[in-house]
Structures are given as structure tokens and as C-alpha cells.
Please model this.
Amino acid sequence: MDVLVQLLLNGIMLGSMYAIISVGLTLIFGIVRVVNFAHGEFLMIGMYATYLLATKLGWHPYVSAVPVVVLLFCVGALVQRFIIQPLLNADEHIQIFATVGLSTALVNLALMIFGADLYSVSTPSARQSVSLGGYTVLSGQLVILACALALVAGLHLFMQKTPLGRAIRATAQNRNAALLMGVRVDRIYIISFGLGAACVGLASALVMPLFPVTPTIGSYFVLTAFVVVVLGGMRSMYGAFAGAMIIGIVDSLSGYYIAPDLKEVVYFAIFILILIFKPTGLFGFGRGTE
Amino acid sequence: MRFVTRAALAVALTLSATQAFGQVKIGALYPFSGGLALLGDESFRGLEIAIEERNAAGGLKKQKIEIVKGDAVEPNQAVGEARRLTSVDKVPVIFGTYSSSLSIAATQVAELAGVPYFELGAISDPITERGFKNVYRTNPTARDFAARMVDAVGEAIAPALGVEAKSLKVAIIHEDSLYGQTVAGYQTARAKEKGVTIVETLPYSAKSVDLTPVILRLKTAGADVVLQTSYQNDTVLFFRQMKEQGFKPKAMIGAGGGYSLRDTMLAIGAENMEGALNVDFTQFRTNPKAAPGVDAFVKKYQAKYGTAPRSGHSLANYMGALVFLDAMEKAPDLKAASIRTAVLAVDVPVGGTATGWGAKFAESGQNSRAVPFLMQWQGGDLVTVFPADAAVAKMKVGIGTN
Model:
């Protein structure tokens, strides 16, 4: 029983981390309709930026979150403007190849600049064990959970209540109709891609105290992030959040009760079953919405 | 067109032949770029120092040795570069390789070309188990690593704790790629042979972002000693989460890999890494009586590269290169058959080289006198603690200072 509760807690903490990483991916997929295979490398860029700010300027990763979010917004916007936009009317496969190529290029760029070594930031305050009735979690994990919830709620408000949010939703629903209504679709795409990248920027600053960064760190998270996004219905942020929690808990429980090296098998099996029986994802909006 | 190519080739060959007068080329095949570059380069530095030492002492058969580099990032490239070295540069021998998968690929080319291949750092056993006649290896293999890790339970840890070896519950955890699988397989076999109690064997993906399920399993099983075969990221994650989950085994032994790197210790923190045991190639904090020349090597390295050595790979490559250069010097010529006779005649006792290893080659080409030592992280340094004559510090028990 004790172990079960601890495993569930660990699963929720892991889930919130997957959630905060996946929200940006959902956003980009849902609005720009591009499968961004370089998402993991955006995380890597954010983590290196956080690392540099911590070692050169002595900034706490949580403080660095602000400039890193801005930096990643710019990176995302530039990628959309100069790589995706020229390919917007091309075949979907071409866009996928473009983001895969970008991902490989970024990994090798990081290898050139930083080498294959891992770098970490020493932040004891984010690694404090917090006791919850005899079970332990880390302060940094609680921060991630809180931020993931706040991020989803904040984005929801932004999408529902602001004119820009409405324009983004309109573009996501029907690009041509939005264009006819006077929405500057190209600009909306640039902003949306930037927003998605900015979300992963926030994630990278929050994850940095818990994981050391290497050029390939993105590949540790990105496959799971894709599962989360599809599980959540591809364009629903709440869906992604719930999907992340499910994956986190399944990961934790199957690692203990089945075998640590089989946990991916378990959640990919669940993933395939859901795709068979509910192809639009757990929280999908029916066929045609992807 | 064909005529032009041939003519150009002839001119090139003549030119390179005149240039080669008074010097002998040797191939050096390592990953100089890509993800393995750091330790590939570190390995190469050991070879480079050995060659410079030789050249300063008159060279090989009174000829200056010139290194021809081959850069192998992955196995296909290793094959391509090995072909270039053997057929374009026509080197008489190749030294390499650091990575086992690169070595397996490159040695096949060298074997077919009849060019002796000297492996100085790759640990996968099959490299010298394929019946090849031109592949030789100075360093210990995965089987030696596994044996040392399992034997350390009875020979070093149980005496230090003052308990019977049989009473200790041992767990094997390993990353689930070929490296971890291989070492863990040998560990299981060795444990059976030696009557060591294994309570859990847990493979995990080196790309895991959460190892708490592994740790909770070990906690539930009440493991006293954990044998871990791991890379860098998973080592860091395991140590951090072990502390957070309050799991305190009596001893942890790593199989080199992530355990040997200074950056791993820095990421985990010296106080948390304190007491972690490690089996690996000889490191620099080793008793010079058991490893004569280790101090002189560190000095030469410092003088040439301006930093302390980054890992023991350079030392292992230095030792191996010297052994093979000695054998080549004694061979009447640099033909593969003469080199084979000379290498099989090598007889250096244990404790006769800078790594503390001896050298005596079996028919397979494998050195039978290479054993990895047991080391321990103490105060942020990796020091040799076992066997006693190579030790520079006394072994401690327990993990972490707090």
C-alpha cells in the first residue's frame, strides 16, 4: 500500500512534467497543423540557455524562466517564418522532413558548441524533499505541477477572452475562412508557433534543476510528448494534460509492478489500443478535427 | 578517362612513396567527431604520447613513425575509413578504437586485408572471439569487468562490513542496450559460479526520465549491494533519485561508463557520490608501485595538452600502444605473419606496465593479463582501493556523507 501511494505520487509528478513539455507541442499541432519533430531540441535550447544564465550570471533557473521564454518565443517565430511558412502549401511530408532536419541540425550544433558532456545546475532549493504524510516528492516537482496547471488555465483564458486568442482559434478552425474574415493568418501562425516554443521554454527552465542537459536530452522526452498529444486528442490542452497524467502514472506503476524496461511497451500498448478504438484520442472532437 | 585516373594514381603513389622514405605510417582509427568524440580523442591522446615517446627514442626500426588518422563516427564510416587506411594509405598496422561497435566493424576490414589491428580500448568480448588472426587487444573485456564486480562482493565488501559474503543481498541493474545486457549476462553467470545471492535483476532504458520504480523495487527487495552498468545520464538520475527516495544500500559498484566521469560526480555532487565503487580501466590515482610509469604519463600529458587527463582511456591506449610498438620493433619486418609471431611472444608480468596490467596474448589475440581494478569516489576523487598493492586509499563502506 505504502509503495502504491508513493508510486502514484511519483506518477503524478512525472505526468505534470510530461504535461508542461507537451502543451507547446499541442498548441503548434492544433493551430499551425505542423508536426514539430524539433520540439525536443527546443527543450534542449531552453535548458542550455538556463544553464548559461545560471553559471555566467548566477541566476536561479526560475528567474531565468522569463528570458528563456522570450528567447524561445523568438526561436519559434523565426522557425515558422523562415522554415515552415515557405512550406505551408507544400506536402505534409515535406514539412515533417523540414522539422526532422532542423532537429538533427540543432543536436549537432549543440554537440559542436557544448560537446557530448552533460551540464547541470546546482539548485538545492528545487531538490528539497517535501514530505506529504510520510510520502516524499520534490519541491521542484510541485512547482512543475503548479506551473503546468497555471499554464493550461492561462492559455485557456487567453484563447477564450482575448481578440488575439479568438483570431488564433478562428485560424485553427478554418484557415481560409479566417483569411476571408480579415485575420492575418501568416502572422497568427508565427505567433502561435512562437507561443508553443515559449511554453517549452518555460518547461526547460523548470526541468533544468531536475535533469542535467546534453545535446540529446530532447529525445528523452519528445517521443512521450507525441504520445501525450495524440492521446489527448491532438489539439486539446486539457486532453494533453490528462494524457500526460495517464502516461506518468502508467509509467510509474508498470515500471514497478511489471519491469522497468517494459514500461514503454505498456504505455505504447495503451496508445495503440486507444488509436484503434478511439482514433481521435481520448478527448478528440470527432473525425475531421484530427 | 581510365588512363588519366591510372596515371594520376601512379603519380600519387610515387609521390607518397618518396615522402614515406625514412618514415613508417601507422593508422589511428577513432571517433574524432560526433557523440563519441570526447573519449575517442582522449583515447587517441594516449596513442599520440606513446608514438612521440618512440620517435624521441629513435623511432620504429630507425624510422620516424607518422600517424594517419581515420575518423569513425559510426560503424559504416569505420568500415570506410578502415578501407581507406588499408588500401589507399597502405598502413602496415592500425591502432584503435575506443567504441566496441566501431571496432567490430573496422576489424573485419583489417582482417580481410591482412593488416594487423591493435585494439587498445574497446571492451566487447566478441572482438577477439571471432577466430581472427590479425586482431589483438591489450585491454580487459566486459567479462573481466563483470567478474571483478561480482568478486568484489566477497573479496572487498563483505570483509569491510565484517559479514559473510553469502548473507549480502546483491541486485544487478543495467541499461538495456547491448553494453548493459552483455555485462549483466556475465555478472549473472559469475554470481552463479561464486554462489553470490542475486535478489533482483532489473534492466531499464538509459533514456528513462524516472528511475524511482527501479529504486522502489530495490528497496522492497532489501538489496545490500547494487551492481550498476550505466551511462552518464542514468547514473546521475539514479543517484539523485536514490537519495530522494531514501534508499541506502551498503555498497554500489559501477561498471565504468558513467561512473568514471568527473562530470557525473560534479552533477551528482561529491558528497552524494562519496563511497561509490567503480570497476574500470586503471585511473591516475593508482599506486605507482603496481603501475610503474603512471606518474610519468600524467606529467607528459599535462605538458603536451595543458590539462589533466580526462579519463583513464588515454592511459590504457598509451600502455597498449607501447606493448605493440615493442613487439613491432622485435619483429623482423612489418608483415602480418611476422607481427603475429612477435605479438604472441610478448611476455610482460602483471605490474609491468603503466596500467598495472601485464601482457601475454592468447591465440585469439586477447591479452590474458589485463584486469580492471576496483576504484572508489572519495572526496571528489576516483582512487584505486583494490587489490591492496595497487590501492592508494582504504576502501570505505556506505554511500553518501549525509
About this structure: The first strand of chain A starts at residue 129 and ends at 132. The radius of gyration of chain A is 19 Å. The CA atoms of residues 55 and 121 of chain A lie 8 Å apart. DSSP finds eleven helices and two strands in chain A.
